[in-house]
């Protein structure tokens, strides 16, 4: 019997609506029971999920007098070494990435004999199984590199004589093998994609044992096998900076969770790659590229700051690009004043832009970095002021409290009480505190008097304001990769309240 698909789309749409109505959880319960929604707490800060000595990410210093956290220029450490110092120390040599996996795995920088032995091991493990490229990489090619890596890593399980042995010697062997093979899989997967999806010539070039990791990637990647010394150096630095980023990021946490079940190495790595793919994690790089392509197409004069500011404002207002209101690449969940990886890469990118005669494009990147920051800051202030104005003019029978948690100007956080006496610093009950989310920038709580269950149309005015804010896209407002989020939510059905907060 042939299945009828005429009404399939309608049936699926109906199921979608059922899904939306099913399993809803009051968001205030996450605060009440201190349940973390992923790897961020209610303030948007990272939560402690494990301990590691391998890598450390620093975005704050501790004031010795007050004991308070103070924003500082970001620092990244590998096994106690500042990554900026490691890269600076390698300036006299051509390449240094091979030293970094050794450092991360074994806790110290290798001596010259140790490095030579390590490179020899990687060279041996770099070889892919017979017919692997033909039977795995070239078949069922994906348009996304992360999916290609996942599929190939999982398939390597079938070529391993001891895939489920999770003893330290065997896991180390598997890890070194994956480190060596991953560049080949990525490059070959890219060429397969270009061949099958873009009708380009298929190029498969073998790695050369005498070349560094960065050089091998470039000579296998480029159609003519040629590359400049600066290209190789820039890639080498990029590989170093991306080698590790602490134990609390999403993909690393995924590896911890999956490996804790005792599963095999290939399954754990494939799971971490799945997490890394997301646009709020490793996939953010791709979103940045797409965003800049969009900006370059829609801004006629890249040197006109007014035109650029206008278009960036449209992106923030969800009127341009992907409609999310995000300027991708701006801000970070841990780093505050600066990202050390960005500082270093920017220096090398500038050199590379000069070599490739793309200074105009590099200047555009610098302008977006500066102007987008200004637009986001302006948006924050305007949004807070808009909320306060709407509340003070339209809310009745409410009490409003504003709490300061950072250096936000007091003028933007002064308590308002449109109906009744000034509430000042009145203490909240335990139940009320459970609904309050004190966040990085500020929190404004609009609390109404307890009400009985009543029809939706009889709810207090504050709920109408909530709806108005959401419709106007004042809420939710997001900018950055999960860094700044302005939203409005109902705290409790019993108190009929709404919370306007910065994340």
CATH architectural grouping of the largest domain: Orthogonal Bundle
pLDDT average, as an integer?
A: 78
Cα-atom radius of gyration: 27 Å
Helix content: 40-55%
- Number of domains as seen in the coordinates: 3
Structural class: alpha+beta
CATH class of the largest domain: Mainly Alpha
- Summarize the main sheet: 5 strands, antiparallel
Backbone shape:
globular
Strand tally: 8
Report low-confidence residues grouped into runs of 5 or more.
390-503
Spatial sequence of strands, sheet with the most strands: 4-5-8-7-6
Helix-strand pattern = HHEEEHHHHHHHHHHHHHHEHEHEEE
How is this structure best summarized?
The protein has 503 residues and is of the alpha+beta class. It has 18 helices and eight strands. It has helices at 8-21, 28-32, 83-89, 99-106, 112-125, 132-137, 145-156, 168-198, 213-221, 229-241, 250-259, 265-276, 284-298, 305-316, 340-355, 359-394, 430-435, 461-471, and strands at residues 55-62, 69-78, 81-82, 398-404, 442-448, 477-479, 484-490, 498-502.
Please, could you describe this protein's structure?
This protein has 3 domains: 75-281, Citrate Synthase, domain 1; 286-379, no CATH class; 387-502, no CATH class. Helix 9 (213-221) crosses helix 10 and helix 14 crosses helix 16 (359-394). Strand 6 (477-479) and strand 7 (484-490) form a beta hairpin. The strands form 2 sheets. The chain has a 5-stranded antiparallel β-sheet, covered by helices on one side. The protein has a 3-stranded antiparallel β-sheet with strand order 1-2-3. The protein contains 18 helices and 8 strands. Helices cover 47% and strands 10% of the residues.
